[in-house]
Amino acid sequence: MTASPSGSPLANVGGWFGRFRQGLSRTREALSARLDGLMGRELDPAFYDAVEETLLQADLGVQTTDAVLARLKDQARMGARAPDAARQALREILMASLGSGAPLALAPPPAVVMLLGVNGSGKTTTVGKLAHRLRGEGRKVLLAAGDTFRAAAADQLQVWATRAGADLIRHREGADPAAVAYDAAQAARARHADVLIVDTAGRLHTKTNLMEELKKIDRVVRRELPGSPVEALLVLDATTGQNGIAQAREFQAALPVTGVVLTKLDGTARGGVVVAITQELGLPVKLVGLGERIEDLQPFDPAAFIDGLLAGDAGPSPAPRARD
Predict the structure, then answer these.
(1) Residue 314's pLDDT band (cuts 50, 70, 90)
(2) How far apart are CA 158 and CA 67, in angstroms?
(3) Alpha-carbon distance 245 to 251, whole Å?
């Protein structure tokens, strides 16, 4: 995905910051307010215990929280003992944990984006919002209704395709999803599509037949579109927190997952799960859902995320990181 729809890496910094700040309001209220109360205290064991509790409540998870605390203590030993220095050190540690961000691999066309995840995570909605976003960038988008198991899933996707101005390949309910993927791959090549987005079924991730079905779809698109980049994005509901990480491990064991889409980030006080996903799964968060509007699917920007998570009334950091 390009640095910004306008072509300038910094053109949308204010917009991204505003959306992240608004979407992360619940997490920020739970996290930043508690940190504000801690930063005037002596950096003693009680301070670190309180920081640990705060990070766990934000759903960074035990493993990630332990790593963050260890680095924070290292920074304190090197001189970051003043309250403001400790807060800045925490910001830098979280930024380092998230890395520089990872845009979608969409070249050369036709690129393939497969959306994976359990029912209720927001897959089909994400397909529609992503199609809208890519169409706004001037790309020709084709959708594939690979969820032939859920009643009316293709009808729901048709509504999104119409809203986004994208074509849709669909079969009857109960058809072989791999056959849908095959026809969609052929159509993507014949119609010179830039991006093929494949919706998939979301039955319980512990069901072996679902994983085999997803593997078959993956094999088909790679075989029929050799040389095309394939993004296998796992859609996780942010409100499920650490449970989403358990789901992710099941999908990772079956498929070469390339990244995460975190939905409903605006509806949870546990937005710290973004850091846990990056650290514990080794997967980049590529897109986030920050609301119900069709425009509310945003590329993940680590700097805007951390500022939205920790900032008070200030604006974005003075030198935010541009995405490649």
Answers:
(1) very low
(2) 45
(3) 10
State yes or no: cis peptide before 302, omega within 30 of 0: no
Question: What whole-number distance in Å separates Cα of residue 17 and Cα of residue 104?
Answer: 20
- Contact between 1 and 106 under an 8 Å Cβ cutoff? The reply is yes
Per-residue pLDDT, 17: 55
Residue ranges of alpha helices (H) inside the chain are: 13-23, 25-38, 45-57, 62-77, 83-98, 123-136, 153-164, 177-190, 208-224, 242-254, 273-276, 302-310
Residue with tokens 């994976």: 116
Matching residue, tokens 């942010």: 238
State which amino acid sits at residue 209: N
For residue 107, give Cα distances in angstroms to 1, 69, 292, 311: 9, 39, 29, 35
Whether the pTM exceeds 0.90: the reply is no
> Could you give the strand order of the β-sheet that contains 297-299, starting from the edge strand earlier in sequence?
167-169, 141-145, 195-199, 111-116, 230-237, 259-263, 285-289, 297-299
Does residue 111 carry a pLDDT above 80? yes
Q: Which pLDDT band, with edges at 50, 70 and 90, does 324 fall under?
A: very low
Amino acid at 91: R
Confirm if 309 and 271 have CB atoms less than 8 A apart: yes
Residues in the chain: 324
pLDDT tier for residue 107 given thresholds of 50, 70 and 90:
very high
Contact indicator for 323, 9 with CB cutoff of 8 Å = yes
**pLDDT tens-digit readout, 151-204:** 788 888 899 999 999 999 999 888 899 999 999 999 999 999 999 999 998 765
